[in-house]
Specification:
This protein has about 400 residues and is an alpha+beta fold. The protein is built from 10 helices and 18 strands.
Length: about 400
């Protein structure tokens, strides 16, 4: 096992006038050292395409994760998917990345635009082997992973962007490569890269996409541990044990909550210095303790982080807010969403007397739910999460 890990991000836009997307991305982790990512594009658009692509991606990801062969996957799909009465065919195209031990990637492609791999900030013309399975031409590649490799899988809505509007023949593969090469040098996350690619497609379509367009980006990077402390322990006698465990972990340290930061200050024997600078009216100001990377207020700040996390997994509209602001919630977002790969939560179960006022919208359950929901969102971002309660 090496210290590399995969960061995965994707975004889709629907065919203009359609409620459902005809593309689907599925991610399965059958074990700690294996990840299967499938991008499927259903025939046509709308409900039919959505059903076809969802079935295809679910079948492939589940079967490959269980160790079945590619031949069995393709045969199962051919036997399972309904046939279109108009075209007489029934399939959805697919691209698959199967990551093994964070050392190798098996890339399997059928009828989707060929995946782009950026290595050392340049397009890499990776080797492909052609196979014929049930009359279908499938390309496979085995790739030894390197740090900062970027895999870009797309549905055909991306290269078709701008046909008859910005370009005569769509957004050429070479132009998409140039676009991604330039972005790869900045250090954006996989989610941000996929968002920027799909947003550019949307622009080329004049915000009226003529096809569903999806980009799924997988970025290979080194593991970066992060530790977050939220709330004092239910038993005061556990405070020192909680603090020693928290500060003994490698990586950066974030402390959320006034009482919690006071306990940390006492444990470290360093003063807690409050700042009264309000970067945003709805987020309390941060504080400072020598030896701690970030000290913020508790529930209100973490609730804002959760709000940003849900948006990040969806349309990613608030990216610019938290990526450039200096308030506590934005600083936490940059540490958790961008920097971290492995996050350890240390959560105190103590009930804050100030939160027991019935006129306040905050209570103990809300605090626990915040941790659970934020953990869930971070897992969807591909982070490894461990939560310890005290």
């Amino acid at each position: 096992m090496n210290d590399l890990c995969a960061e995965i991000g994707y975004k889709s836009i629907n065919h203009h006038g359609e409620q459902l997307c005809g593309d689907h991305v599925d991610i399965v982790e059958p074990s700690d050292d294996s990840t299967v990512i499938v991008l499927s594009d259903g025939l046509g658009s709308g409900v039919k395409a959505s059903i076809l692509s969802t079935l295809t991606s679910k079948i492939i990801s589940t079967m490959l994760a269980e160790g079945l062969s590619l031949e069995e996957c393709v045969e199962t799909i051919a036997a399972t998917l309904p046939v279109c009465s108009v075209r007489g065919v029934a399939y959805s195209t697919f691209s698959i990345i199967h990551l093994k031990n964070n050392q190798t990637a098996e890339l399997i492609q059928y009828d989707n635009p060929h995946a782009i791999i950026i290595r050392n900030e340049k397009n890499w013309d990776y080797p492909k082997t052609e196979m014929n399975i049930g009359g279908k031409k499938i390309y496979t590649s085995i790739i030894k992973l390197q740090e900062n490799d970027i895999f870009v899988m797309m549905s055909d809505g991306c290269p078709h962007a701008g046909i008859g509007i910005a370009y005569n023949f769509g957004w050429k593969r070479e132009d998409i490569i140039d676009f991604m090469e330039a972005l790869s040098q900045v250090g954006y996350t996989a989610k941000t890269l996929s968002t920027m690619l799909v947003d550019e497609c949307n622009e080329l379509y004049g915000h009226k996409p003529g096809d569903d367009a999806t980009a799924c980006v997988v970025k290979i990077r080194k593991r970066e541990p992060m530790n977050m402390l939220f709330g004092p322990p239910s038993n005061r006698d556990d405070a020192d044990r909680m603090m020693s465990l928290f500060f003994s972990k490698e990586g950066k340290h974030i402390i959320c909550g006034g009482t919690t930061s006071s306990i940390a200050s006492k444990f470290l024997r360093k003063p807690l210095v409050a700042t009264l600078k309000f970067e945003k009216s709805d987020v309390p100001p941060i504080a400072k303790i020598e030896g701690v990377d970030l000290v913020t207020e508790g529930v209100i700040t973490v609730n804002k982080v959760l709000e940003y996390a849900k948006d990040y997994l969806g349309e990613n509209k608030h990216y610019e807010h938290w990526n450039y602001s200096e308030d506590g919630a934005s600083l936490i977002c940059r540490l958790l969403f961008v920097e971290a790969t492995d996050i350890n939560f240390y959560v105190g179960r103590a009930v804050n007397p100030a939160h027991q006022n019935p006129d306040l919208p905050i209570n103990f359950n809300i605090k626990m739910n915040l941790v659970e929901e934020l953990s869930k969102c971070l897992k969807q971002m591909g982070k490894k999460i461990k939560v310890s309660y005290f």
